[in-house]
């Protein structure tokens, strides 16, 4: 498997940490798939790499740390406009006229905004555990967290996370640590896939509260694409875990109903991450969907 890890400079001089898989001598014959990670200021390219890296025999798979996250420059602006332009820059850098775009969690918000603005560039769209309305989504997630019987978080700290008013990186780290169990299925929900936990894509987590704060204090109040979903023409796969209380099933149902050519798949044994909770089923459904657009 050909693999390239490099730095790509954006039009404003910011450097992004990029990994491109499947880019060999026949790469011009392979379609491009770009996958966006979630959790701005926290997650990295390793999340989408674990979910989509196995497709490198069929696609050129491009994953990267968004600006403000991981090894990419922590230089703003951290707006959706800027993150969308970064996607456009990477598409052009990879030499693709059209491509498949995948977005997980917060990456799904950016993917939806991209699909609304640049739908002519998409041959496919994959949305995993996301929402289409920032105000309602963030407030509902906070409400579910503070009323959950599974965790006992510091309510004021969680308000700071979801309103984008974290004190500093340490505040961000403590906020994430106390709600991690909330993202997984309940203990009494057992997946039929008895697989060992993989550590292949794990790395030391670095917290960048400035990115998170901008995303949730500025971007989320402005993000609402519900009325524009009907204009998305790309064949769309919408994936969600039945036990996702951050971006609940109803949000994915509404998205799938509103996009004309959308397919909804609910994973009965998953929380916020079907690719890790039910990996075999996720890969099966993903390949079945991708066969229709290859």
Question: Structural class of the helices, strands and pairings?
Answer: alpha/beta
Coarse morphology: globular
Number of strands: 8
CATH H-level superfamily title of one domain: Alpha/Beta hydrolase fold, catalytic domain
Q: What is the helix tally?
A: 10
Radius of gyration from CA coordinates: 18 Å
Distance between the termini: 20 Å
Please name the CATH architecture of one domain. 3-Layer(aba) Sandwich
For the largest beta-sheet, the strand count, sense and barrel status come to: 8 strands, mixed
Q: Topology as H/E string?
A: EEEHEHEHEHHHHEHEHH
Instruction: Quote the CATH topology of one domain.
Output: Rossmann fold
Q: Report strand %.
A: 15-25%
Low-confidence stretches: 194-202
Provide the residue-averaged pLDDT. Answer: 93
Could you name the CATH class of one domain?
A: Alpha Beta
Strand order of the largest sheet: 1-2-4-3-5-6-7-8
Helix content: 25-40%
Organism: Talaromyces rugulosus
Protein name: AB hydrolase-1 domain-containing protein
Keywords: Hydrolase
InterPro entries: AB_hydrolase_1 (IPR000073), AB_hydrolase_fold (IPR029058), AB_hydrolase_sf (IPR050266), Peptidase_S33 (IPR002410)
